[in-house]
Each structure stands twice: as C-alpha cells, then as structure tokens.
Design goal:
Length: about 180
C-alpha cells in the first residue's frame, strides 16, 4: 500500500462492500456501518452488538466487533475493535534456512460518539482510533480520527453524508526514521 495502516480502508460488511466501500449517508439501524461514518450512530443502536468476520485470502482474516450504548444527557457512544490477521509466516535467513515462524497483524480500537444538533435531522459524530500493527519483531502504533455528519429528511427519502476518515499520525514507526 501507499499509506501506513491500510487495513483501515477494508470494507467491514457485505452491504458496505456491495456499495463500493463508501456507505456514508444511509441509515440502516446497523451498528456495523458506523465504521464508515460515525454520524450513522443512532439512539436505536443502543445495546446492540455488531460482529463481522471475513476470510479474505491466503490465510488472511479480518473482522470487526462493536457495541453501542445511549447515555442520558450525553448522546450515543459506541466502541469497537477492528483487526486484520495476516497469519503465520516462515522465518528464514538469507540462505533459506528456516529458523521458526512469526505472525503479523493489525488492530484498531475505536471509540465513537454521535448526537443530533439543531434538529433531529442533522447528526454529527466522531470516532477516535488507537491503531497498532505488528510484523515479526517490528511494531508500530498511531492514532486517527473520523469526523462525519448526516443530514436526512426521512419523509422525503433524502439523506446526504459527509465524512473525513483516518486523519491521524503514526507515533511509533516500524523502524527509526521510516514513517
């Protein structure tokens, strides 16, 4: 990939994948879509659990688990864990001598918040992400934020969404000087 933590761009659900990976304005009362736009987090998702698992290719698996809760006088809050497991690899030296195996994986722990502003038709939301990646003896971590808004008029069957995703920083690179 061209960026650090590329796994954050993978579509988490079949619905999101079928719509090109960018489902940012459709309200489906589906907690799994909150990962595409935090403003899709609604009160009706309180006490919901979302689970997603994808058997990707060549022993690579990824998934997402989330939970949401309505907090009086605060709004709706959700938490989730997104992961990508690359599987096991053979460790070998430059001569091809096998000296064990190692694993590689990526993970993001997310905290989302959304609330209506002005009227119930406009919802704004944000997701804070702590991101960790491990490849053999190398590891990296960073943080990012998603900020979104959805304006909807259900009676007119109209919705428009806006989202800025994965704006953040890699705090610890895999190797010194290599961001």
């Amino acid at each position: 990939g061209n960026n650090t933590f590329e796994f954050l761009k993978l579509p988490i659900s079949a619905r999101v994948a079928a719509l090109g990976g960018n489902l940012i304005s459709a309200k489906y009362n589906d907690l799994i879509v909150v990962i595409t736009n935090p403003a899709l987090l609604t009160d009706s998702m309180s006490d919901n659990v979302a689970l997603s698992y994808v058997n990707y290719f060549a022993d690579v698996n990824y998934g997402y688990a989330a939970y949401a809760k309505k907090i009086k006088k605060v709004g709706i809050v959700g938490g989730g864990i997104q992961y990508l497991d690359y599987g096991s690899f053979k460790r070998a030296d430059e001569f091809g001598n096998i000296d064990g195996t190692f694993k590689a994986s990526d993970m993001s722990i997310n905290l989302s918040y959304a609330n209506s502003v002005f009227d119930s038709n406009l919802v704004v939301g944000a997701t804070l992400k702590t991101i960790y990646s491990a490849m053999e003896t190398y590891y990296s971590w960073g943080s990012a934020v998603d900020i979104g808004a959805v304006y909807s008029r259900p009676a007119k069957k109209f919705a428009v969404g806006f989202v800025i995703k994965n704006v953040g920083r890699q705090w610890k690179p895999y190797t010194v000087g290599n961001y």
